[in-house]
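Narrative progress, year one. The postdoctoral researcher (J.K.) led the effort to move from monomer predictions toward full complexes, under supervision of the PI. The following entry was the first complex the group processed end to end, covering 411 residues in total.
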Amino acid sequence: MFSDRWKPLARGVAAGQRSPQFPSARNVQAPGKGLDDRGACARNSNALEQFFAYIQNDTGVRLLDLSGASQANIGFITNLGYKLYSDDLLQTMEMAFGNSNGDFYENQMLPEKVEEFLAQALDFPEGHFDGALLWDALEFMAPPLLKAVVDRLFTIVKPRSYLLAIFHADEKAESIPAYYYRIADAKTLLLAGRGSRKPAQFFNNRAVEKLFQPFESVKFFLSRDALREVIVKR
Amino acid sequence: MWNKRREEEYSPKPSTPPPAPVESSREVPPPVASAPVRPQAPEPPRGVAAIGKSVIIKGQILSREDLYLDGEMEGTVEVPEHRLTIGPHAKLQAGIRAREVLVLGAVNGNVEASEKIDIRKDARLIGDIKTGGIIIEDGAYFKGSIDIVRGSDGKQPAVSAKPAPAPAGAAPAEQKR
């Protein structure tokens, strides 16, 4: 039953609006071995390991996790003693830009909708977070929204804090899978498909560097799969 | 396990007359040892104060017994020493304080659950959580901060099926939007 349910998700095919049941870490194969029997994909993540190595703060770290609340991420982050704010940015985008007339990306061009979205999703005080887990959300943002979101991120994270973002490396793909990102351990991510979507634009290394131009540095982590991991230092 | 304990507490004491039958009690079998640990859509157990799905309340609820709330509520709900179950039809625009909170419906407001909060699949919670432990099922929607408070007995908060040791001097998780 489970395997049937997860197969389409693993292929990145939309499987309705419902979030999938996510398997626990112990039910997933070791990283690099592809899909488990329920279709969840475990992968090594050097960027994740580096991100948490960088995030060190004696006064209590505040992290922003934009992949949606999950037991795995909440458990991992709070067990480190860190503070957590959780939101599903892609779902919030769908609610903000996908439920009215017009295309999902066309709606992202409208300044009033962008402002409304920022107020809804990223309304935090200046320098509020020590790090942000952005995952792949930026790939589904049209340029006006993308710039506004990156500018807002620049404001709400502290200087010398870090962002973790993921971009698909296949520049010819017309649609790319979106995932729920779950932290299995410090260097292992579990990816559960949540349908596929046309990307707003393709990000090569130069585009990513340009995107995070206001930030201090961008570090790329190349992998053998089609995901490019990036750590950005504010 | 904890459900079983709770259900036992709900059972009427022999010395007291049985509670007046409520609408749902005719449909719900009495709690037995083999009852599922985590029912998908629990009905209010016998002897538990229940607010039905057609009830709308504006104001403050203070309960000194377990409470099942399945209606609409705007205000504050306090069940400080007991368990609050927010039913699947509930729509709460309320601040909540309870020992345990089980969420199956929609809540917009901050929640303080001294022992634990359990957010089930299809539940929707927007607000900040302060709790000793959290269980969140996939399929639940949550937006807000999570503040895990360590108990006075020093117990590790129940937040993960795969707990990692917390670093020495780790602070509880908290942040406010």
